[in-house]
Design brief:
With 322 residues, the chain is an alpha/beta fold. It folds into 2 domains: 184 residues, Rossmann fold, CATH 3.40.50; 114 residues, Rossmann fold (3-Layer(aba) Sandwich), CATH 3.40.50.40. 30% of the residues lie in helices and 21% in strands. The protein has a 6-stranded mixed sheet with strand order 4-1-5-7-8-9, with helices on both faces. The chain has a 4-stranded parallel sheet with strand order 13-14-15-16, sandwiched between helices. It has a two-stranded antiparallel sheet with strand order 2-3. A hairpin with an 8-residue loop joins β10 and β11. α2 packs across α3, α3 packs across α8 and α5 packs parallel to α6.
Length: 322
């Protein structure tokens, strides 16, 4: 079995400096060589290092393309892929690869570390070893391997800023891949998508500006899909409707998801044409909307956002009432 490891950067390959942790060449390479000797035989490793590396905090949809390019280029010669990624935006990248790689028939495993390999007690070695094992045994799709757990790529979220067990994922009805007869890579365009959060008494004039200028908006609503009915938000929704841009509502709550129409107080969102994002995470909703906006040709973008492409809406129990 041939596994391609794609090293994009991240905490795992850093060392302590006077200015804080900074990338250092050779750490990940040495660890992979050690693990290759220690783990059970039966697989061969090759390494692709992205240059320049991706600073997780500065990652963009164009970086998602760079990772997907490596997978597509090596798809015929490798059986599985491990992507080493910074943790801050790892869940965004996992969701993005789920949508971009339609017809993926091999496992893609994302992992990283909360503590660099250069530091005592690092979780990097264990996560890498687990990811290599998962690459050999997992079903086709995009997965996140972290702290001993294999998580659905389109449902994963980072929920802790420092604990080793930093990621979780909700249930999913289907594996993290889009069925198709062959691999098709849908490249991301440089779309302008904003994520806006409602808050009690918060300034809502920003909604009018964003919905008047962006290509799409993710609206983080309360609970099952309610929001403050203010002139600013109404003006923004009117601008979005006039411009024909999609606005997708997701919930600020960790569980349950949006179910627009449950409460009368959210009816003005439905009337304005806001799309119910159901149980999608913010990460999945952002990646999905960016994916849909980048598609060429005559595409029903709203219909694509509303359909479950790769398990991003969770289990049927989670999306009831949508």
């Amino acid at each position: 079995m041939k596994i391609l490891v794609i090293y994009t950067g991240g905490t795992i390959g850093m060392v302590r400096t006077a200015a804080g942790f900074a990338p250092s060449a050779g750490l990940v390479e040495a660890e992979l060589q050690k693990l290759g000797a220690e783990l059970e035989h039966g697989f061969a490793l090759s390494l692709a290092t992205l240059v320049p590396a991706i600073d997780s905090a500065n990652a963009s949809p164009l970086d998602w393309n760079r990772i997907a390019d490596e997978i597509v280029a090596a798809y015929q010669t490798h059986d599985a892929f491990v992507v080493i990624h910074g943790t801050d935006t790892l869940a965004f990248t996992a969701s993005a690869l789920c949508f971009a790689l339609e017809g993926l028939g091999k496992p893609v495993i994302l992992t990283g570390a909360m503590v660099p390999l250069s530091e005592p007690g690092s979780d990097g070695s264990a996560n890498l070893a687990d990811a290599l094992r998962a690459a050999q045994s997992s079903a086709p799709g995009v997965w996140v391997q972290f702290a001993g757990k294999l998580l659905h790529g389109a449902r994963a979220r980072k929920v802790h800023s420092s604990a080793f067990d930093a990621f979780t994922a909700g249930d999913a009805a289907v594996p993290p891949c889009r069925p198709a007869g062959r691999l098709q890579f849908h490249r991301y365009a440089d779309a302008s998508v904003s994520v806006l959060t409602v808050a009690p008494g918060g300034c809502t004039s920003v909604f009018e500006y964003a919905m008047g200028h962006c290509d799409g908006v993710i609206l983080r609503c309360y609970g099952a899909g309610t929001a403050p009915d203010t002139p600013g938000l109404r003006a923004g929704l009117a601008a979005a409707k006039q411009r024909g841009i999609p606005v997708v509502a997701v919930s600020q709550s960790d569980g349950g998801g949006a179910a627009m129409g449950t409460y009368a107080s959210g009816s003005f969102l439905v009337e304005a044409g806001v799309i119910d994002g159901g149980a999608m995470t913010v990460e999945a909703a952002y990646a999905k909307l960016t994916h849909v906006l980048g598609l060429a040709g005559p595409v029903d973008r709203r219909a694509l956002v509303e359909v479950d492409l790769c398990g991003e809406f969770g289990s049927p129990r989670q999306v009831q009432g949508r």
